[in-house]
Amino acid sequence: MFSKILIANRGEIACRIIQTAHRMGIRVVAVYSDADADARHVAMADEAFNIGPAPSSESYLKADKIIEVAKESGAQAVHPGYGFLSENTQFAEACEANNIVFIGPPSSAIAAMGSKSAAKAIMEKAGVPLVPGYHGDDQSPDTLRKEAEKCGFPLLLKAVAGGGGKGMRVVERMEDFDDALAAAKRESKNAFGNPDMLIERYLTQPRHVEIQVFCDKSGKGVYLAERDCSVQRRHQKVLEEAPAPGLSEDTRKAMGEAAVKAAQAIDYVGAGTVEFLYDVDGSFFFMEMNTRLQVEHPVTEMVTGQDLVEWQLKVAWGDPLPLEQSQVKTRGHALEARIYAEDPDQDFLPATGNLRYLSTPDESAHVRVDTGVTEGDDISIHYDPMIAKLIVWDETRDQAINRMVQALEHYRIAGVKTNIRFLHALADAQPFREAELTTGFIDDHRELLFPKSRLDTHKALVLAAGFVLEQRKSREVISTDPWSPFGRQNSWRMNSEYAQPLQLQVGDEIHELKVLERDDRYQVFVGDSVYNLTARLDDDYLQAVINGHRISIHGNLHNDQLVLFYEGDTFQCILYRETYGFEEMAGEGSLAAPMNGAIVAVQAKVGDKVTAGQSLVIMEAMKMEHAIKAPADGVVTDIFFAEGDQVSEGAELIAIEVTADAEKEEG
């Protein structure tokens, strides 16, 4: 077995690989960019090398630099993880040329599956069922238009060299085709250096079911169950599970055998995933093959009891597959939720910031957390905004869902916006519990997935007051006389009762509270209501009783910013002080950057008349494009940035003089 390997990756997957390597007695070399000098994967590795500046194009995508480090460190093999260079043919070839084992398939297999159009041709020849569409070499707009008409609508434009939902567009009608094609080509060229597209019939109620396959160097192949990854957003998986609910044993077997056939058709070695679209009538169609370890591989590990990274290392070393097909068994049900730094209430815009507070559920045989960050780390614009993967297992799907709901309630983050509340609503939604799964699940159930807060606003304000007051009390100077009121911070006054004011800002609204402190409780006045409150704070855990209702919450107070966590929900407020004032908001006729990022395209000129909803600027952040649209009808009066510029969240991009008609309509 290898004695030392290099991991050409970062974040949670690098940490995940290190754990297995160390368990097997293998030393690990990490690589890191300037932004990752203090990252968790660097601390976990036996040694680490800096490979360049923060942008991945100058560090984690520098194949020659990584090969140089592998040789210098004496690493016998390179594990690419997923993303970055994991499906890069040239990198695999460079490893082979330098007598370094690439822990993955041969470069020829990566090349065969690297082009989605070529992959479909290979699969067609191997007898694997395909979705109707076009995957030819002629990429002229006229040809693509004609093929689109043949295919019919709705259709899916997909980057030939793509992955991760980038370079993909659903087109509902011919009138939208040209704009969608241009956007998909641009995004594909930026992400993969290849603008070529393929066209597929877009099935209206499909499920995304994929098979985990493994092949060794002798040509033997097995499949290790299947995963349902239907719950997606922008073609990116959000919640995955194994096994796929509702599949018959015959379908499961047919799909698994087709996946192994697909892998053997390209002389595959190692871990791979064959993805299928599964239709309501039970038919399934080859979609693509990912020639690497998948993000969602832990759910397969949880139901099979196998360590897929260990399998990768053994097969790369030359060992045979650890199990025959008949020996592969599954037990129970597993789910994985991807926890992202993003704002679901703002169309899931990527978020950046500092993880000033991070508390994860306790890990056990039922709960697993794969992460590459620790409390205090920054989520930057340079890499994918995934914070962690939360994986749960139980005997049945219903029990596993309950585990997931509970675990999400125990996952608490402050300092950066996350999708935890959204994931909690998703996992707990009745249609999900009933396995009504399609790739359109999120769009079909938006009302369920964006519920109102579980906390009544007044009760939340009272709890916030209790948290603030109890934390202040815990920091009071201890007097020699424990009963002396002079060491207290409650605005105590001699010979009078004084209700101290407390102002809490929620969004743009300031709430005026008054608090009267008794010996063992508080009276909190909110508007015309009075609440009797007893509270006890233990670190970040508040036990409170409000008018006889006992509630337990967690919280984090930092620089007057308070976040309370309650049953998967959060309540955020600011301890308002007169010196703060309100931030000036962008004017009605201006466009502000909703996040840090880069300008990809400016689609208007000074003097242009624009209409509400018209796309004016395309920004790129966290490897995804986002359209910034006109807030109202008007005329462009100023453009402050150009293509290629980096901008900060809140920066004004374009100024618009709103027309009188638009102002009347708004009024």
Automatic annotation (TrEMBL):
Residues 1-447 form the Biotin carboxylation domain. Its cofactor is biotin. SMART domains: Biotin_carb_C, GARS_A. Pfam families: Biotin_carb_C, Biotin_carb_N, Biotin_lipoyl, BT_MCC_alpha, CPSase_L_D2. PROSITE patterns: ATP_GRASP (PS50975), BC (PS50979), BIOTIN (PS00188), BIOTINYL_LIPOYL (PS50968), CPSASE_2 (PS00867). Residues 120-317 form the ATP-grasp domain. Gene3D superfamilies: 2.40.50.100, 3.30.700.40, 3.40.50.20, ATP-grasp fold, A domain, ATP-grasp fold, B domain. This is Acetyl/propionyl/methylcrotonyl-CoA carboxylase subunit alpha. It comes from Marinobacter azerbaijanicus.
